[in-house]
Specification:
The protein is mainly alpha-helical. The chain folds into two domains: 1-31, no CATH class; 38-103. The protein is 77% helix and 0% strand. It contains three helices and no strands. It has helices spanning 2-24, 40-68, 76-102. Helix 2 runs antiparallel to helix 3. The longest helix is centred in the middle third of the chain and has 29 residues, at 40-68. The radius of gyration is 23 Å and the shape is flat. It starts with a helix and ends with a helix. Keywords: Membrane, Transmembrane, Transmembrane helix. The chain crosses the membrane at residues 72-93. This is SdpI family protein.
Length: 103
């Protein structure tokens, strides 16, 4: 067991670097975008994410103000799951609208 752990500790940096170079490094992949941060899809993603963040600030702020005056007993887990679900749906709609407008 000790020998296997020592061997794993020794081989892990070498194998992870090799996998990175062969599978993930953009310079080694044919047809890969050189700078994916400036791709069209990345710009659509950024615009949609900014919009969702602004919507979440608005929804959470108004919801916090509203529920501070109402005695409501709900599960915090369900409330957070609902906020995440709203954010996901909002992002999907915004991304598709931006994609359709730009295409």
């Amino acid at each position: 067991m000790l020998a296997a752990l020592i061997m794993t500790a020794g081989l892990l940096p070498v194998l992870s670097t090799t996998c990175w170079a062969l599978l993930l490094d953009r310079n080694t992949l044919r047809g890969a975008t050189r700078n994916p941060a400036i791709s069209v899809e990345s710009q659509w993603y950024d615009k949609a994410a900014v919009g969702v963040f602004q919507d979440l600030l608005l929804v959470c702020g108004l919801g916090g103000a509203l529920f501070s005056f109402m005695p409501v007993s709900v599960s915090l887990g369900l409330v957070l799951a609902g906020v995440v679900l709203v954010a996901m749906i909002d992002f999907a709609i915004r991304y598709l609208m931006i994609k359709r407008a730009q295409s």
